[in-house]
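pipeline: protein-struct stage 2 | run 1193 | Alpha-L-fucosidase
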Amino acid sequence: MNRIKIIASSLVLSISVFQGNAQQKLKLQYDKPATNWNGALPLGNGRLGAMVFGNPQKEELQLNEETVWAGEPGNNVPKNVYPNIEEIRKLLFAGKNKEAQDLANTTFPRQAPANLNYGMPYQTVGSLWIEFPGHEKFSDYKRDLDIEKAVSSVGYKANGVTYKREVFASFADDVIIVKLTADKKKSISFSLSATSPQLLNNFRTQQNKLFFEGTSGSADNKTGKIKFVGEAACTLQGGKLTATADKLTIKDADEVIIRIAIATNFKNYKDLSANPSEKNADVLAKASKKTYSESLQNHVAAYQKYFNRVTLDLGDSPQSDKTTDVRIKEFGTSYDPQLVALYFQFGRYLLISSSQPGNQPANLQGIWNHKLSPPWDSKYTVNINTEMNYWPAEITNLSEMHQPLFSMLKDLAETGQESAREMYHARGWNMHHNTDLWRITGVVDGGFYGLWPMGGAWLTQHLWQHYLYTGDKAFLKEYYPVLKGAAQFYLDVLQEEPEHKWLVVAPSMSPENTYESSVGVTAGTTMDNQLVFDVFNNIINASKVLEKDTPFVDSVAVAIKRLPPMQIGKMSQLQEWLHDWDKPNDHHRHISHLYGLFPSGQISPFKTPQLIEAAKNTLISRGDVSTGWSMGWKVNWWARLLDGNRAFKLIKDQLSPAPMETKGQQGGTYPNLLDAHPPFQIDGNFGCTAGITEMLLQSYDGAIYLLPALPDDFKNGKVTGLKARGGFEVAIEWENGKLKKLIVKSALGGNCRLRVASDVILVGDIKLEEAKGENSNVFYKVEQIKTPLISEKAALKGYKSPETKLYDFETEAGKTYSFEVS
């Protein structure tokens, strides 16, 4: 048997146990320039984004600023639709499903009516071009992205001179900085120009600076009103700068620093009165006072404040010396554990780079987009994708990156009052399955895809989860009105279905799936029931913490008892619908009814074995290969099912070369490690990062479960800095698939309950007790669900959970506890 000795010690000494070779080779590296956008390397500081191509002769920096969206302020809530919604309800409860869908399609047409819109696209600023005459022929080429420092570099030889470029989007100075050097003086000569696909644009030079200006596009019933201004300023050592009408030319310099500022007139979703020129002038003036070394040092320090909180070492192999594109091609047939660690950390890098406090949340493409009309408009799709973007935020110790999403939720709780009132005659607020910079909350893409009033239900789970991880009572008080508004909406819109008298949401859908030919609109889908269950429990628990709103939550408590239970259907599957309508050959990418397994925690191997078996049957039936984000979700599901090898198989499926086609449902990974739907969507990156974490640590089911789904390929490893609910920070080392060392730091104090393999005995000089009953730590409360209904035709075989033990020990806030195998 393994025996673990427990000792209290300082954090510094504890964490040092896990250091050594914990993080190495955190670079994406290549031996050729990018030939298309999916090979370029992403840089970002939360607000500004750049894709770096690395062409020696003509470098392209494709640029984004997070508030450059088409359109103008205004919601998209249709008028006078409540009577039709009422009629759709009646048709559904009468079993006239096709008629209900037809009325939904008529009420909410697939294409936006002339007086409405279905959301605005996120758009590119354009590109900055750095052209080097005579660099057509080059050798000794290398290109990389160092995600430990958030810096991209390009190096090569041309005409006997070694050239180097460094590029970063500064977290400290809020500009993009490019440094050009050569190993021979007077060797740097280039021109600097800009282009933009925006119809309204202007390029000019003034005072030896390059300006690129434009106005965002118009779409549907909205006129483009975002004004953006970009400004590029060069600092030379040696050489000469000359300016023509729309181009800067530098000749014979020893070194050049380019600083790029971009700003817009956006203040908030209803105010476009900011002055972008003034902002750029201020930002550039401050940035230009610093040396390049100072700027780089400040940037790296600001970035590493977040990034260095977590390390992951899964081992190494000769594959890590190869270029990243080759490693992706060979991953399915080669042993390359370090690529998994790099992929995990790349997800954290992307979240830090696309979602900084005070800015906009990460959209479907983070902040990186080179088009005016990107796929799905690169909006915020909230029937899975936006939520997935933020799954790594708490668990991988990036809690601050969650703030932009929370800020957007405050906005949506304002604009969503209109859709709740006008469309449903309800209090509170709601939204459907998409929003944008303007915080729209109406139906998007018509009655087949968009009549899903559950967006607010899912997004608000992030508020409650943030509280569970941080214990921040002030935060909970600040966002309590958002939680309450969501609960008010569902309290008002729940309908009594005729058969069982359950309270259900109608009309709605199980996102994007159907139960009859071309019919998806329905009442009481499993996912809806799970979401409302969580919304109601969140407000009940929040009101208790804040000691307020007792009469209101009493009415919520009455309603929650009338929600439908989960059901197991005739194929031994978790039913997707209120009725047993699941299809045997359904391989749909959305498996929304498994929300209760993950990210929610309503289904558990230890508390609900029948539902776990049914969820597993559903997952097997749907298959593995799908869109990138769907495979990312499946990694998390298989981790929750405690099957590490199947979870790792999904990671291998995802870490395979993405198809070159820009549509379809076979995901994969592009040469730059970005996720393919296809085309590019960033959510799959974040989903896999979260899934890898879930394989190593889970804390949703009343305890901190150590190494719950460790695959055979992760035989030895170590991880530091992962977060568990209740303010615990955890570091783990394992050997031959068994726990070896453990460190727990308690930020909040309280009981720490550990779940470990049954052959692990915990001994030491801290009194540990075998856990009994429910965890006394309030952050580990497990909500009791109804007993599932099981079809008479179901043939469940029985699910046997792994043999584990639970141990409790009391912690003090600020103290660290070390565990060692003796």
